[in-house]
Amino acid sequence: MKQQSGITVVEILVGLALSLIILAGVMHIFINNKQTYRVQEAFARLQENGRFATNFITKDLRMAGYVGCGGKISDPENMADYYPPPNGDNVADIVGNFNASGLEGFQTGDLPLALTDALVLSSSDVVPGTDIVRIKRAASTGVRLKGNMTTVNANVQLDAATAAGVFQEDDYLFISDCEAADVFVANNVSTSGATTTIAHSDSVNMGNFLSKPYQEDAEVYKFIATTYYIGYNEAGEPALFRQILGNAASMTAEEIVEGVEDMQLLYGEDSDDDGTPNRYVDSATVADWNNIVSVRIELQVRSPEDNVAAKTTAYGDRKLRRTFTTSIAIRNSVT
Prior knowledge:
With 335 residues, this protein is of the alpha+beta class. It has helices spanning 9-62, 160-163, 331-334, and strands at 77-78, 103-107, 113-114, 120-121, 131-147, 155-159, 172-176, 181-185, 188-192, 195-199, 219-232, 238-245, 251-258, 260-269, 279-281, 292-302, 321-329. The chain is 19% helix and 35% strand.
């Protein structure tokens, strides 16, 4: 008879042991690759968030103080008196105050900070130790005056074709001819034939008239007021926020980029009027905001994912962090 043959128990155990060794090696490679992927993904998101945050704030900072032409206009006249509605209080609205640079910086020690007559930015809104910057400027509409230019009037008349859908009642607006400028509120916007009329009566302004009779070289702009700061989102994570002026003196808080946990700003002050900063100082040390010609921005951004850094950081977590630094010139101040 033919003898039967098979695998012994020892051979089975040896095979199992070898299989376990190979499996452990495969698992080790898999875990390492997964961690490498997590680190790379976290770093990529950190880089992306840093670029987005820097792009948003630098875009607005470059345009601080824009009044429709190169150079500055001595502090524009603030005619706005919308708050409290319906007839104001005979005091110019805070949001319409516009220095020639259109720029102001603050620290958390300066809080609470009035954004409008009805809204303040408080210490509970801002991450402690971070900086705040407020930017005001005009946004071009391409709409120039058409009528009512011989004397000061309680309204301005525009070409209806170019003004269609641009303005609405209770908008904060800006008018400039590169020699003078006014901030005012539209209390009525109407169109008849080829003419759009924006009324600016004393029901929402300091008076019925602007500071001068503007001519056809003047343009009516949207008035932009934006405040950037670092706050906490609904998930309790730090993020770059901005408050933007809307219709009827409203402010809208927008979360721009998650993971931005610090913002430090230094302001380039030009003390000899040559368009070049002589020194960089923090907001508390600025002698005259109208002399600021550049801003140095430092944003610290952290990864959304934890347990990706090689070891525990000084913050008590294992998140990746990177500091993004850039300096930008304020175009209206160096022209």
